[in-house]
Amino acid sequence: MRALRYSLTAAFALLLAVPAPATADERLVVGGQEVKTADAPWAVALASRARFGTTRSGQFCGGVVVARSTIVTAAHCLTRDVLGTEPSAATDLRVIVGRDDLRGTAGKELAVKEAWVNPDFSAGTNAGDVGVITLAEPLPDGRTIAMAQQGEPVYAANTPAMVYGWGDTQGNGSYSDTLRAAPVLVLGDELCEQAYPGGLEGAYDRKTMLCAGWAEGGKDACQGDSGGPLVAGGRLVGLVSWGSGCAQPGRPGVYTRISAVSAMVTAHSVDKKPHGPQGPAQLARPAVPK
């Protein structure tokens, strides 16, 4: 449920329902396939068992490793509406790295040293939907992805991209146990403005947002994928933010435009150069409290 301008995470908090288990043949993220974290080492899960239960390791949002100690995610993932408290008081907030299947124990669960939420984030317009998490311990080299900057060709209309997450695979509360990815196209700003001209379904802002999907629908991010990566040309171009429904024709997913927020991420990173490697990336919306 991404309608009525609700962020994907806020929509989860409103549902307050236990998701049905996902099965292997279900559609992804929506409309994709299972992938391994080894092929997308920068894709991480945000978790809080106290808030979201023990199933699926307490996952409720996604995040992206842009430097060894720096995780970027959606601002709405770190709000009181989602966490039930301020991030500084969410003592069991964890970043899960290297875990393909959230039912298992592979990889690591890292503590959060600090969480910064963009003070200009608007829950009403979804503008400025970015937050930065500082890990209590740095990750090893090789897990970061570069943030695409303004003017890079990866922002051009019809650029192939992939969106990653552990979220709803069908738009009905069927959350995935495993990491999934869906192929989409970066769409032109004019098309995005036509899809979201304002009103109840929200307004698209080309300066701070981009949208991706397919004219016919079928492939998209959904609930539980918020804060996760949209990757094009080996670069992080967007963070899953909001939209109307999931994978609906004429209603593409809307993402935080990374080039519009990368300076803020850098300013709130403890790492010297939180832009990830300069070469191609290594191949590669929250969940309901239980």
Question: Can you identify the CATH superfamily of the largest domain?
Answer: Trypsin-like serine proteases
The main β sheet shows up as: 6 strands, antiparallel, barrel
Proportion in helices: 10-25%
Helix-strand pattern, N to C?
HEEHEEHEEEEEEHEEEEH
The CATH topology of the largest domain corresponds to Thrombin, subunit H
Count, helices: 5
- Which term fits the overall shape? globular
CA-CA gap between termini: 18 Å
Computed structural class: alpha+beta
Summarize the structure.
With 290 residues, the protein is α+β, with helices and mostly antiparallel strands.
Report on the structure:
- With 290 residues, this protein is an alpha+beta fold.
- The chain is 11% helix and 26% strand.
- The protein has 5 helices and 14 strands.
- The protein has helices at residues 8-15, 49-52, 80-83, 189-195, 258-267, and strands spanning 33-34, 43-47, 59-67, 70-73, 94-97, 108-117, 131-135, 146-147, 160-165, 180-186, 209-213, 229-232, 235-242, 253-257.
- The strands form 2 sheets. A 6-stranded antiparallel β-barrel has the order 9-10-11-14-13-12.
- A hairpin with a 2-residue loop joins strand 12 and strand 13 (235-242).
- The two termini are 18 Å apart.
- The model is unreliable at 1-28 and 274-290 (pLDDT under 50).
